[in-house]
Amino acid sequence: MTTPDISGLIDIARLTEYLAERLPGDGSPLHVERHQAGYSNETFYIARGDRRWVLRRPPRGVFLPTAHDVLREYRVISGLQGTGARVPRTLLACDDPSVIDAPFYLMERVEGVVVREEIPAPLDTPTERRGISEEMIDALAELHAVDYVAAGLESLGRPHGYLERQLRRWSGQLDLTLQKTRPLPGIEMVESWLRDHLPESGAPTIVHGDFKLDNVIWAAEAPARLLAILDWEMATIGDPLADLGWLIVYWGPTGEPVEEMMAGNNQLTSVLSGFLSPEEMVARYEGRTGRSMTSFPFYLCFSVWKLAIILEGLYAHYLDGTASNPLAAEFAWRVPRLVTRMRGIMADAGG
Asked: What is the pLDDT at residue 86?
């Protein structure tokens, strides 16, 4: 059934005609369902007869050519076809704005479940939770093993200087944000520590940029099988341990009471038995890839720092009355807790 909120995002008549020319079928009508709204690219479920697809397009409104670049996202997923990385199968991309007033691409819909605040019953056992943990690491290791040059993705990003660029980018973002919010005691010390402990990156790989539990699709039945990695809009070439650090930020204890954690990844993986610990996750990745984890505290601290900057930005929207989520008020105390978490990582690393 078509949802009522797709006006201005999908012209069903024009999309029907466009797809009929390129993906011939039996003439069945298109059914379009908007999956979610937000700051990311828009996602729609498209059905025609027994065919199921996913369409991705930028959000409504004016956007910069480099922002919400769905055609770049399409190129990444297409390049990863057949490489061993777990990605959906892409079908077509369209840069003609006369079809739905924006570029878009179409891929096969992977039937499965996404784990957000609860685990589907067939996977909600200690054995399957361990399987989820192992699959997360194995899928990440497979992605990082891809020869990005052979996949035609060498122009996706600059392979060298990734960490330095990331530090500059997020440091600048933090400076701009703090002008709109409040002082954050200790955050300057964290940034200084990161600069002093900047490691030398190993061989560059494709970096997903947002790899975590709720950005993948699982088979609905046991055993736990990770079917596809989603949300490739931040993918680039860089240091693969940045992906591992980001995953571990959302995995297991955070140092705060479980009942006060944000609902989702950390709560699930902290409370329920069977999930590997963060340390076990890192050890499994090391075993699968052979990469040294000597400098991993840097990557974990950097990832918490990045998350704190993102949430402080959302808190700035709350303060000026433009936040779309009322929970942004909680970042008044959640962000300082992240600073405390970073200081703990630094202390454990001997810094």
From this structure: 98
From CA 37, how far away is CA 40, in angstroms rounded? 8
User: What's the distance, CA 15 to chain centroid?
Assistant: 28
Nearest to 300, CA basis, from 252, 345, 348? 345
Residue 306, token pair as written in the block = 């990045």
What integer pLDDT is reported at residue 36 of this predicted model? 66
Residue ranges, the chain, pLDDT below 70: 1-5, 7, 36-40, 61-68, 351
Q: What is the pLDDT of residue 79?
A: 98
Beta carbons of 146 and 83 less than 8 angstroms apart: yes
Contact 211, 229 (CB under 8 A): yes
pLDDT the model gives residue 324: 79
Verdict on whether the full-model pTM lies above 0.85 = yes
- Identify the CA nearest to 249 among candidates 181, 305, 294, 198: 305
Tokens of 45: 């479920």
What SS3 class is residue 33?
Answer: strand
Q: Are 44 and 6 in contact (CB under 8 A)?
A: yes
In angstroms, the CA 344 to CA 351 distance is 10
**Alpha-carbon distance values, 153 to 37, 74, 76, 146 (Å):** 29, 12, 7, 10
CA within 13 Å, CB half, 336: 9
Residue 294 exposed, middle or buried by CB count within 10 Å (0-12, 13-18, 19+): exposed
C-beta separation of 84 from 146 below 8 A = yes
Largest Cα span, the chain: 66
- Report pLDDT digits (tens) over 188-202: 999 999 999 999 999
Cβ 261 vs Cβ 226: under 8 Å: no
Cα dihedral 56/62/64/67 (nearest 10): -30
Alpha helices in 35-109 (DSSP H): 70-79, 97-100
Which amino acid belongs to residue 323?
Answer: A
